Amino acid sequence: MTPAEAGNLAPHLLRRLEAVLATRSRVLLGIAGKPGAGKSTLSAQVAAALGGAAVVVPMDGFHLAQSELERLGRADRKGAPDTFDAAGYVALLRRLRAAEPGVTVYAPEYRRDLRNGVAGAIAVPPDVPLVVTEGNYLLLTTDGFAPVADLLDEVWFVAPDDAVRLERLVARHVRFGKTPEAAQAWARGSDERNAALVAASAHRADLVVGVPGGGTTVRDWTP
Fold first, then answer.
1. pLDDT tens, position by position, 33-59
2. Burial group, residue 74, by CB count within 10 angstroms (0-12, 13-18, 19+)
3. Contact at 8 Å (CB) between 153 and 27?
4. Which end of the chain has fewer surrounding CB within 10 Å, N or C?
5. How many CB atoms lie within 10 A of CB 193?
6. What are the two backbone dihedrals, phi and then psi, of residue 64, each rounded to the nearest 5 degrees?
7. May I ask the CATH architecture of the domain 3-220?
8. Residue 103: helix, strand or coil by DSSP?
9. Collapsed DSSP state (helix, strand, coil) of residue 186
10. pLDDT value at position 104?
11. What is the pLDDT of residue 6?
C-alpha cells in the first residue's frame, strides 16, 4: 500500500489497520465518537487507503423513520439511542461478520436531505476484506447496542477539540436546513446530551484519536 493510496490517513493508523487486516479474511472496524467528531471523515480516509477493498456502512442508516419518530413522540430527540433500530443494526453486523460466500449484503444509508434512511443503498460484496462502520453508539452498553462492540474487531474513538466539534456540528445543521439559532440550540441541547453518553463509553475503545486544529489528519490523543 503506497502513501498515495493511503491519502490523508496517518501512517501509524495505516500500520495498525494493516496489522488487523492480517488477522482474518474480513475485518469489521468501528469508528465511534460524539456528534460532529469527524467519524465520517476518518471512515472515508480509511476506505481511501484501501481503495476498492473497503466499504463504509454508517450506523445512521438505522435511524427510525421520521414518521415513526413522530408517532412515538421522539422526533425532538432524533439522534438519541432510542431513535435507532439497534436490533436491526446488530443483525446487519452479524451478517457482515459471517461474510457468506457469494452473498452480497445490502445496508441502509441515511439521507439527511430526506431525513430518512434508504434501504439497500450500500452494497457489501462477499470478498471485501474491510467493513468500516461508524456511529455514535458503537460502544454503548444500553438501548440494544450492547452486542455491537463484540461484533467488531477493533474500535477507534474520535475525540477532537470540543470547540471545533461544536462549530462543525452547528455548520452541518445549518447546511441541512436549520436556522443558525436552531442549529446552535440543537447542537448545545439534544446533541450535547447524546455526546455525554458517547463520551462515557470512550474507555472501551481500542484506540482514541483526535483531529488537530479541526483538520482531517488524525493522531493519538490522550484525554
1. 988 888 988 999 999 999 889 999 999
2. middle
3. yes
4. C
5. 12
6. -65, 145
7. 3-Layer(aba) Sandwich (3.40)
8. coil
9. helix
10. 98
11. 43
Residue pLDDT, tens place only, 115-167: 788 999 999 999 999 999 999 999 999 999 999 999 999 999 998 777 777 77
The overall average pLDDT reported for the chain is 85
User: What value, to the nearest 5°, has the Cα angle with vertex 72 and ends 120 and 172?
Assistant: 60
The three three-digit cell numbers of residue 59, written as one number: 450506523
The model's confidence at residue 212, banded by pLDDT at 50, 70 and 90, is very low
* Closest to 202 (Cα-Cα) out of 62, 79, 34: 34
* CB neighbour list of residue 215: distance below 8 Å, 6 or more residues apart: none
Place of cell 460532529: 36
CA nearest to 130, candidates 42, 54, 25, 16: 54
Distance CA 185, CA 183 (A): 5
Residue 5: is its pLDDT beyond 60?
no
Q: Cell numbers at residue 17, please?
A: 489497520
- Cell numbers standing for residue 84: 435507532
